[in-house]
């Protein structure tokens, strides 16, 4: 599955954790790909002594789970299977299928990238064909600003490192990392196949539960 590139390593990298960002820890256990939010004691402090407090730690993972279910139900776009999501010890977890392959960004030959890009554009066209009069994520968690126009389903962060490719056939095996997915303006499906993330989202307030399995 896509290997997020950590901006700086975190000292508390336990067994099985292959990457850490200021928002997440990532693990591979057998056929499972695990991402979880950082616990407060793991928040990263920069050289100025300022601690980065991740926003929407639970909600983004919930939105990704809902988006993956939605995509499987309405399209044939390849995405990982979702196994479960839960909360434990002040951290939110999302466990999905681990996808073998390479990131599209790691393809060395530009002709190989071009071949994968042709298929990717077809998948993005399928997303553009899914329309709604309601803004936001498929689960209703996201409540972004009102713009008064038709909305199409956007990935939200569909850059090359979130596209997993078979290095032999160059076929796309999965598009991953749907945390920011939802119904937004069509122009967000840009040439660089990424939806703008600089528009801040407002999320519905939800009660935090120490341990709660999500419905899948």
Automatic annotation (TrEMBL):
Domain Aminoglycoside phosphotransferase: start-end pairs: 149-182
CDD domains (alphabetical): APH_ChoK_like
Matching Pfam families: APH (PF01636)
Matches recorded under PANTHER family: AMINOGLYCOSIDE PHOSPHOTRANSFERASE DOMAIN-CONTAINING PROTEIN, AMINOGLYCOSIDE PHOSPHOTRANSFERASE-RELATED-RELATED
Protein's recorded name: Aminoglycoside phosphotransferase domain-containing protein
Lineage summary: Eukaryota, Fungi, Dikarya, Ascomycota, Pezizomycotina
């Amino acid at each position: 599955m896509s290997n997020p590139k950590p901006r700086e390593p975190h000292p508390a990298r336990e067994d099985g954790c292959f990457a850490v960002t200021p928002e997440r820890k990532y693990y591979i256990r057998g056929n499972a790909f695990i991402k979880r939010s950082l616990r407060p004691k793991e928040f990263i402090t920069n050289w100025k002594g300022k601690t980065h407090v991740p926003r929407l730690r639970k909600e983004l993972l919930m939105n990704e789970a809902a988006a993956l279910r939605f995509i499987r139900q309405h399209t044939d776009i390849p995405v990982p299977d979702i196994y479960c999501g839960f909360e434990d010890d002040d951290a939110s977890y999302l466990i999905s299928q681990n996808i073998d392959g390479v990131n599209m960004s790691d393809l060395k030959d530009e002709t190989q990238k071009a071949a994968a890009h042709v298929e990717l554009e077809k998948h993005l066209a399928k997303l553009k064909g899914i329309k709604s009069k309601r803004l936001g994520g498929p689960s209703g968690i996201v409540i972004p600003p009102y713009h008064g126009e038709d909305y199409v389903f956007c990935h939200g962060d569909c850059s090359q490192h979130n596209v997993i490719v078979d290095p032999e056939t160059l076929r796309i095996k999965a598009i991953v990392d749907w945390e920011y997915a939802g119904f937004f303006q069509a122009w967000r499906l840009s040439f660089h196949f990424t939806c703008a993330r600089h528009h801040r989202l407002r999320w519905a307030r939800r009660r935090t539960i120490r341990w709660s399995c999500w419905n899948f």
